[in-house]
Amino acid sequence: MDEEEQIPHRKRQKANAAKIYATPATPDDLAFIARELILCTLPHSDPGDALSWSRTNGNLTLGIQPGVNHKTGKSYGFPYGIIPRLIMVWIVTEIVRKKTRRLELGASLSDFMLALGLNPANGTGERSDARRLRDQMERLFNAIISFQRTAEGPNRGGSAWLNMQVAPEGEFWWSERQPDQAVLWGSWIEVGEKFYQAVLAYPSPLDIRVLRHIKDSSLGIDLYTILNREAFRAMTSGKPKFLAWEWLQERTGNEYTEVRDFRKKALEQIKALLAVHSGLILTVQRGGRGRRSGIWISNLSTPSVPPREKPPVWDAEARRANPSTLSLVPKTAPPPTHQLKPATLETFHMLYPILDPKDCQAAFDAWQAGLPPANKARRYDGAFLGFAAKWVKGKR
Questions:
Q1: CA 201 → CA 300, 352, 380, 389, distances in Å?
Q2: Which sequence spans correspond to the domains of the chain?
Q3: How many Å apart are CA 308 and CA 320, to the nearest integer?
Q4: Which of 109, 140, 165, 326 could form a disulfide with 84 if both were Cys (CB 3.0 to 4.6 A apart)?
């Protein structure tokens, strides 16, 4: 694209950004990502011929081992960059919306990629979206992805881990005459049970319009998911959140050797993000005199998809069609014993967007009613959220 062609392109970008900034997201704009993929992100660039790759955030480590094509005896390589991030968003969104482990790739994935401005059937060139999509799907679906949590105490330590393939089962159908053309009709994947349960436990909502605006940068995608989550945490806690550049680099950009190089690139992507994320209120802090350099997220910030008092229409319909058999709530539930605080409701909607807090509260009250007085919750809202973390498992 020459300089003259870039001018109308930039104008369209600015016009689209202004529209996104000023218009709240609708249910059709909703997408999701798994919490673990916010805490630890995929590689930005190709790790090459390494046997494994890992990234650590606190006590959580994400590790990847590339899969092997047993017909050729060669490695598929590591999933990296923009495409696998967008594929993972599609997978999580499909799981949350459809409540199924088997996902059809044909129209659904193609429509999703087109919605993001990518064309899964746009030719055969090496850098075509079709070629990149096929390559990254093979890398992602055949890789072994591991999540490991460690715990250390004064007297003992331990660890918990999950080793999995995102899609241990599936079928791909491609055009033999045009092998780079993504003919995905009849193609499907089935995600593993552990991955399926992990996704449903903590899906984090995103605005697909924001993803479309920043889709050309894997760092931009990572920063969006992290800053969006931290904006929610600042909002619900009522306290601003400080993120040091070193902290952000560790979680999103350990390919950068110098913090100053990462900071420069991150600020470019944050500028693009702020053009479309109306709820994000940031202040850049310079280091010096005992202060660390980084970003302050105001507690007046909101996530790009604000928590809803009522679940999306598709979710309410899904609950009516598939009522839970493990609910503790009687058919005619008594009125709640307490009024939940707005911040508690916001937290519940953000953590469990597919569930109704009223159902959970009725179950919580029923459980509380069976406890002796000495064991009843003193802090109702905090105990409710603790109960909810266990209650949701029965809802899956």
A1: 27, 7, 22, 8
A2: 30-213, 218-297, 313-395
A3: 19
A4: 140
Q: Token digits for 173? A: 């159908």
Q: What is the mean pLDDT of residues 324-348?
A: 62
DSSP per-residue string spanning 205-250: EEEHHHHHHHTT-HHHHHHHHHHHHHHHHHHHHTS-EEEEHHHHHH
Mean pLDDT of 30-37: 89
pLDDT digits (tens, 9 = 90+) for 53-80: 998 877 888 899 999 999 999 999 999 9
Token duo for residue 134: 């096929």
Please give the Cα distance from 284 to 282 (Å, whole number): 7
pTM of the model: 0.71
Distance between CA atoms of residues 144 and 62, nearest Å:
11
d(C-alpha 16, C-alpha 21), whole Å: 9
Helices marked H in 79-205 — which ranges?
Answer: 82-98, 106-115, 129-142, 193-201
Q: β-pairing, 203-207 with 30-34?
A: antiparallel
At 88 the pLDDT is: 93
